Amino acid sequence: MKTGILSYGVALPRYRIEAGEIWKVWKNLSTSFFDLLSIGERGVLGPEEDTLTLAVAAAKQALERGGVGTEKIGALFLGSGTSPYATKAAATVMLDALGLPETALTSDIQCADKSGSTALWLAAGLIESGQVDYALVVAADSINRHTQPGMVLEYVASAGAVAFLLGKENPIAMLEAFATHSHDQNDYFRVEGERFIQPGAGFYGWVANWGLLDHVVPAGKALFEKTGLTPADFAKFAVPQKTGIRPLMTMGKLELDMMQVLPYVLTAQIGDCGAAGVPLSLAHILDFAEPGERIGVIDYGAGAGCDAWSLVTTEAVAERRPQSGLVIQQLEDKIMVDYATMSKYEQKYIQSPHRLSNFY
Questions:
Q1: Would you state the torsion angle of the CA atoms of residues 114, 153, 332, 256, taken in this order, to the nearest 10 degrees?
Q2: Would you identify the CATH topology of the domain 4-345?
Q3: d(C-alpha 298, C-alpha 250), whole Å
Q4: Gyration radius (Cα) of the chain, Å
Q5: In this structure, are residues 237 and 295 in contact, taking their beta carbons and an 8 Å threshold?
Q6: Residue 36 has what pLDDT?
Q7: Which end of the chain is more exposed for a tag (fewer CB within 10 A), N or C?
Q8: Pair 82, 90: CB distance under 8 Å
Q9: For the chain, domain boundaries
Q10: Mean pLDDT for each consecutive 10-residue tract of the chain (360 residues)?
Q11: Is 242 left (phi over 0), alpha (psi -120 to 50) or beta?
Q12: Whole-angstrom Cα distance, residue 178 to residue 176?
């Protein structure tokens, strides 16, 4: 392939809550699980923050870093399972906010947690076929707003956005190969008309991850078979990380080395960012990657399958390394809040739009 990543951008909520603050309210699991599952802090949406605002912020950073004029963007895809709209396209709002051409192919891609990976490879196909020269892909989610109070998922439900600018001219990483595996399996899901996510198989332990290995293993093996590569040929991997168990399960079943995976697991610092989770790990890898490194990506979406793909960094990754806005810097730039503030900011208590005043 000649298509690659030209630049990337990241946006994370500044507000965070520590797992212990949530536990004080519900006390619905043993605190021993916090260390076992790498549960620490997770993102809290700000009062005016949602999937779209985070997506726009990440996209602006990617465009600034890429140095490509907005008039050259031929496609814009938003990969998300938590669009603010039930039937309206959210990507068209992004189009206007970013000042992109109205002629750009614009669409939402909804494929659970792997929405971003699927959107990226759809965009890459457009570029490879010569239909567009540049494409902007954003993976964004606000899982926290769609998690029911008192549900154990609340300890990790977070938010974030990661954007990738794709093209053929001087990329920092070349896309190499892609494989996927999908079949219907109700892991986590949210049906029409429902605000909150439902777990199809609980949350903790092996049973909680019942859909993971059914998709990750065949997708990962398909990638190795397709490329003729082995796990040892990869320098680093970005893998599913809803909790600390998923990286370990993925690592073990695909025979990956601990140091290929664990340094890039960010669960304890930011929680489960949904569609932005694995792309966030990839962005963290790219922040410090050296030229010539092969990076593997295993992106699992609950009930949606798994995309497995690879990319190889170029000399440009060192030349155009971001000097600010690094993932680690955004993780450390935080404001801690309590449970009451979190509930208010994430609008867990919906107020009637028809009330006449603040008093009744």
A1: -50
A2: Peroxisomal Thiolase; Chain A, domain 1 (3.40.47)
A3: 9
A4: 19
A5: yes
A6: 87
A7: C
A8: no
A9: 4-345
A10: 97 98 94 91 96 98 96 98 93 98 97 96 98 98 94 94 97 98 85 84 57 93 97 97 90 95 96 97 98 98 93 97 96 98 89 61
A11: alpha
A12: 7
> Given the structure tokens 């599913």, which residue do they identify?
240
Neighbour tally for 17: CB within 10 Å: 26
Structure tokens at 64: 């600034």
The encoded tokens of residue 115 equal 């929405």
CA 69 to chain centre: 25
Q: Is residue 3 classed as helix, strand or coil in its secondary structure? A: coil
DSSP collapsed to 3 states, 269-304: HHCECHHHHHHHHHHHHHHHCCCCCEEEEEEEECCC
Q: Which strand ranges, in their side-by-side order, compose the sheet holding 41-44?
A: 41-44, 15-18, 335-336
Q: Is 216 within 8 Å of 183 (Cβ atoms)?
A: no
pLDDT for 165: 98
Query: Which amino acid is it at 11?
Result: A
Find where tokens 């909150």 sit: 196
Residues 6 or more apart whose CB falls under 8 angstroms from that of 183 comprise: 214, 215, 305
CB 283 within 8 A of CB 193: no
Interhelix angle 245-253/210-227, rounded to 10 degrees, is 40
Q: Which residue stretches of 67-114 are H helix?
A: 91-98
Distance of alpha carbon 92 from alpha carbon 80, whole angstroms: 14
